[in-house]
Amino acid sequence: MPQALHFQFFFGALISLIVITNPVSKIPLFISLTEGMPAQRRVEQAKWAAIYAFLIMVVSLIAGNLLLTVFGISYGAMRIAGGIVVALIGQQMLFGGASPNKAPPVSRTKDDYSFFPLAMPGISGPGTIAVVIGFSTQIAEVDDWPGKAAAFAVITAAIAVTSLIVWIVMRSSDFCARALGPSGTQVLSKIMGFLLVCIGVQFVGSGIRTFMAGS
After folding, report:
1. Per-residue pLDDT reduced to its tens digit, 14-61
2. Which residue windows are transmembrane per the record (predicted)?
3. pTM of model > 0.85
4. Sign of the CA dihedral running 97, 102, 104, 109
5. Residues 40 and 181 sit within 8 Å (Cβ to Cβ)
């Protein structure tokens, strides 16, 4: 697998995952859920939420092709469907509506929110999983096994970097909230929404090309 493709897979996956997870949007959720917790407990919640999100995304990357095979779904169909989902999520963020991985209201009666709702659906919700499975279809289309292994490794690295960035943002949530303010957070969300629409359109175009090649 050429080194240029390594960078293409890595940066393509990294940008897509950062946009879809939108770490800054997790600041209000994290602050509200961990309010009143000791500092050390807040640190643990951020750490485990990032770890769980990483594991969910890696499992989706591994199992994506297996699920497509079981249900008889072509790579082109999955990529088109995933692109439509991602583009619609971006449209909602851009013009107002639900966030890409919106966590439902949670009663604050427990002291562990790291898996639900922080990791799922907060960080690695349906939109994130759709993006990861979309990249798994691209791995499947690499011709040789060493190339598939290299593509899997670089996308896993992108998932790890994304999880690390989310962890850093949650650890720094109080500072980030003060620095950005409500207006800054809203503007950033709009930018992320526009980028998601672009990523979704790219996924659809790639899926159509796969359909055409297979017909």
Report:
1. 999 998 898 988 887 788 778 778 889 999 999 999 999 999 999 999
2. 6-25, 46-71, 77-95, 115-137, 149-170, 191-212
3. no
4. negative
5. no
